[in-house]
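Please predict the structure of the following assembly.
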Amino acid sequence: MLSYRRRAFWAMTLLGLLLSFAGQAQNLAGRVVDAANATPLIGASVIWLGTNQATSTDANGHFTLAPAPAGQTAILVTYIGYKPDTVQVQGRSHLVVQLKSVTSIKEVTITGKQDRYSAMTPTNSQVITAKDLTKSACCNLAESFETNASVEVSTSDAVSGAKQIQMLGLDGAYTLMTTDNVPALRGLATPYRLNYLSGTYIEAIDIIKGTGSVLNGYESISGQVNVRLKDPEKSDRVFVNLYGNSLAKWDANVNTSFTLTPKLSTVLMLHTDQLSNRVDNNHDGFLDLPLGKHYNVFNKWKYNTGKQWVAELGIQALRETRIGGQVGYRSGMPQQEGSFYGTESETDRVSGFSKTSYTFKNKPYQSIGLILSGARHDFDSQYGTRPYKGFQNTGLANLIFQSAFGNTAHTYKTGLSYQYEDYQENLAGQRLKRQERVPGAFFEYIYQNSTNLTLVGGVRADHHNLYGWVYTPRFNVKYDFNPNSIVRVAAGKGFRVANPIAENVASLISNRAFFFQNDLQPEKAWNLGGSFTQYFEVGERKGAFITDYYYTTFQNQIVPDMYSSPYQVAFTNLNGRSFSKSFQAEVQYELTSMLDIKAAYKYFDVRTTYNGELLRRPFIPNHRAFLNLGFATPFDKWRADLTAQWFGKRLVPSMDHDMNHHETSIMTRTVSPYAVFNGQITRAFKRWEVYLGGENLLDYKQKNPIVGADNPFGQEFDASMVWAPVIGRVIYAGLRFTLK
Amino acid sequence: MKTLKIWMLSLVLTGLASFSFAQGGGKAEEVKIKTSAVCDMCKATIEKGLAYEKGVNKATLDVDSKVLTVSFNGQKTSVEKLRKAVNELGYDADDTKATPRAYDRLDGCCKKDAVH
């Protein structure tokens, strides 16, 4: 018995040695095919992981790769428009690799833990994963960015509680927002748009710095935030999330998905949040955040033949009402001296999109896609004595054709687009109307050699009915010194027509007169920048170091000047220079198998010409720091997160008005640095998760966030001078239920 | 007197602790289940999924042999329940087949007929 075992052991060892010998001496041969229909992929790149030794597939998808130089056991297979795959060779000498298509129309599904800084994309991209999304409070998009260093979230004013994002030190309006890569929540929706998507609708968020691609129009200037909504094919059958916090605000979310036929699936997502408790913790007589009721429905359909056709359809409807202002204010009260000051708003919005794509038979690199989207946005509001109504109808059509020149090292995307916008605004009797009809065409060329270089050059030409031809060139270059050191360079132009009132709703909560220069022109800017990414391993633990620098310079900008005079806000074309310089350095490292750390430092220099003087933009601190500690026990049964954000000293307008000397200069003062801490603990069970967390744990608040709060109908009143949290510490708890 | 009380208490606590420990350890059983797992991602999915099953102490999948070794408390769960748990994650377990819905939702690379 024993001897038999021993003999078997030796035989196995010998066999193993022979096999590994054979594996090393032989070339690796194989074939790369499309996972959906098994057609060969021509010109796909195959490389020994971590080396420069590469080859590409021939006309039948076959490849032969010389033995790995240093005993590598895995190959990386990449192909434009497909999800790259790492394959363990495991001693085999022949293998077939299936790649899954990820053309711009179809989607990548990424779940669980992945590299937050992508090594593949030509742009400087980051992903906030589904897991990251559960790390912060619930349930709107603003909170999703809390554990991320690249996007800032700030409160716009002390009454509406609206949150805005900032990238590269620039206002959120310069960031293009897309859902499933379709431009969304543009124009008048901008001020409160982060509320309009619940965190529970979201699978993941992509953050792209710089102007990006020309495919989605000319608007993005500082970057793009793409929200990937839940995929009907992959969604859980039932998902429920309930949330409540110490201000007595509560949220409820229910998602449910059905697979109706093997090809047709749908997901229905519901969200509501409600606050009916009056909170005035800073005792200034004003609600710290408005009372609100919000109902939101999203329904998404997907039809996937598994072969050539994929179609998606999404419909959203929402209604949100808010009442803010003085504690004594009740809806509909007459607003005048001696009574209470109040703000009210009501948003009704319906929107929809559809995406259809056809991939050519036997040509998996060639596809054609049509994207259609439309929205109707109706906003009705009252700020003290000042009413504001905004109405917007939007329609967009985008036809994209994607193919290759000769082989797939040279691919291109080209197409036509048409955008329709109808804006009608009424600010206290002052009417603004605008209709835009913009046909356009675009072309993007992508060169990718099989190892380390990607070039993307794109240009679009649009004909705007009001402003004539608009040309938008954009370039991205990615070069890998080796698989762990990547440099990217981006340059591009952006163009957008500003909506001064909607983008400065905060200023309506004051008694400033709104003054518009005649002939406001569109905003135009160039953005240049680059990034360097270094992936590293210290003591077998992985980490990444990312640093980037972006310079944005405006040729024209609509400058909201609320600093030269405390009694008005004047919107003028830029007369002089306006720029932003942004630097960021970030380290991510897995300290132990249970503890991840992310630390970032950012420097901003943002200046604009006000009244002929180039001045620092108020409210934007030069220095910021960010620290996130993420702790998780094996299998994520317990998770804990702590995020700290530190903001350096900054200039804020000084409202101590002195008529004698403020002819041209903005009167400013410097406010001291502060830090905000957020934390959360989650316990997971098979189907349930419970979480408990706190925002602004140190209870840091701005003193007197509302200027002239004691006399809201007086001239000094202004709620837009906010630079720190208005709400103090908030403790929350919630639970999630999932039925897969 | 007080010291004595503390001593008594700690003695009782130690006794209780070791009793419960003995009980937990005494019922530990082990089973090997042949699965349809094909990759490291499958390993992560199965091991994580089983970690959330009642009565499971430890679950380890060997990707090459596709054998899942589960150590569990026989009073809280059974081999049938463990197989069912594996099926519901989208994988075959011995002779029981994967739940079709769960299998459909696996990533392409985790499907048993995926070409690797």
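The first strand of chain A starts at residue 28 and ends at 34. The helical segments of chain A are 2-25, 130-133, 141-144, 500-503.
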